[in-house]
């Protein structure tokens, strides 16, 4: 194992507990590993997979996390790929073929992918050596970030066979959550390996102060090296980054509202050391493999201890002296109490939000199962004159019950699906020769259009039929107007996936 570690990562020895976890997995035992943030969880499944023939399927909840890990593995000469929402049907098809025939070692997927029969059918053809469950606390209803789609993971046992070991990893799990993880994943035997959460090199500093901006400047001046300043609001990230620059600090901002390419550029500059301080919301940092972060400073109190421990733990992963600084005052406590109050809306309010959501989406009683729509929380709240934060928590509670799933704000490609039968489509083709060739091209490029919403690439379609992008979009809009297809144009808006039909009050 040490040879693999040195060959790909340049280390000569493992951190505490890593070798024990790796040996457990290689012995074929289902293994739950609880390691602190920065404790090297990824190596605990990457090393075993590299030591065995076949491919590891890694289930992880965040697209940004899987993209970052795939990029890091590729940079080390290890073949890895990911499938996530936002990819076209063609891209997914190619990725699955590569996972079967391309000698890849890691396939990263989001838990929602486990709902699709196509994915499961292709997994059955793969030589799977491990099933990896990252952020495993998401599988437990007692965990702080429970996600219903994680309950689908155990279905993979039926597909890959009972001899393929599961490796579940998390940085945050109580005894109750750990028991729930092992029970839900149907471990053959209880097997929990836990490392100490003590980080001797990381000093935790808590400062009560009214002048937070002055203290942030002092942190940046007193602690040399790379740093992260966490805030809770996008606008605040931009304002504080601008202020730090006026004080001579090399700083920039990062949040989910920044365009995809710009976010990637900012992140790369910071990772390479070309940018010293990143002022960011919690959209930044998950999966960021930068060992030499010397400080993490929180201007706002995080929403939970788990969130704070995870974010603060991004400092000092190289084992050198680092600091986690938390700035607070009484205003923070008032705000946290207010957040707590809106975080638990009454059942009557949640039931009302459920019905209002379907009204907003235009879905009647008894309909909607399998529907996908763009969703904008601010627009939804304005439409019904709701408090957006309270509505957000109600939507999350309904999601936890499995009625719908809401994606991150990502770059979503256009999606289409036929809303008519094959017979009706044939009659439309006969009556409209102008659309006939376009419809044939769509069916040839995307064969699954009759069964589910498929991600499409208008530029690729335009090349195939030798038309302009503008003309392709015009024809898609026209087909949507004729109610021949459901067409969801490309956007950066989150999507809502409706899992069950609308229920009556």
**Corresponding CATH superfamily of the largest domain:** P-loop containing nucleotide triphosphate hydrolases
- The CATH topology of the largest domain, please? Rossmann fold
| Gross geometry | globular
- CATH domain class name of the largest domain: Alpha Beta
Rounded Rg = 24 Å
Question: Beta-sheet strand percentage?
Answer: 15-25%
What oligomeric state do the depicted chains represent? single chain
The overall strand count is 19
* Number of H- or I-type helical stretches: 20
Order of strands, widest sheet: 3-4-2-5-6-1-7
Q: Mean of residue pLDDT?
A: 89
Number of domains: 4
Helix percentage: 40-55%
Overall CATH architecture of the largest domain: 3-Layer(aba) Sandwich
Structural class of the secondary elements? alpha/beta
Distance between the termini: 58 Å
Low-confidence sequence ranges: none
